[in-house]
Predict the structure of Aldo/keto reductase.
Amino acid sequence: MAMSIHDRTVLHNGVKMPWLGLGVYKAEEGEQVERAIQHALHAGYRSIDTAKLYENEHGVGKAVRESGIPREEIFVTTKLWNTDQGYESALTAFNESLEKLQLNYVDLYLIHWPVANKYKESWRALEEIYRQGKAKAIGVSNFTISQLEDLMSSANVKPMINQVEFHPYLTQKELLAYCSEQGIQLEAWRPLVKGDILQEPVLLKIAEQHSKTAAQVVLRWNLQCGVVTIPKSVNKNRIRENAEIFDFKLSPEEMQAIDGLNRNQRNGADPENFDF
């Protein structure tokens, strides 16, 4: 079945989330992030991914509010930072994020990293936020299978999303299969590996065959893996280019060739061993 930029995956609680979103990590608060979101919304994006850590929630909320697009059509994600983990502190941090966004609710709230001995208490807070309707969906980011199993051993609500580093150098097949079995939607951050992957001969060859760029091939591979993708850019042309991934399809052989680039190579921190 053909996909379009308007297509959404259905999370296990029935909430619909766009397959493609705009990441705004390191987009500067104010004019830069607001303009990037304007470009994205104009190009058809309906999902924006921010976090307390990014220090641009105010600009994200402003761009969403002033877009002229009905609030219910735009999917807004933000995240709980590590220093705010715990039950009461997570509730406080969420309310601070909502205040900065100046929105009545967020569509998705995530625990940003699995801080040992704290993420279960944080999850209790997210369950309360979800119960109150202040977040339409809740989930985690950077959780391994063992961390998900540990979290779910005491959870009342199963995470709807696990947002992780996912790209052709880190294909995470076991995690993808586990999340699929559990009904947890996997979402890719830094899908283009800061651009490092875009000179890969395998990708360039496939791109040439489809009259596409290597970046478009990687993002299309994400979608065909069943993974939500949120490439980050503040560049108008690149934002548009990243959205032009719905008019072609990779063959099984091309998907297999891209899978073959896996090196189990992380660009970011290891969820089992980080110190921030």
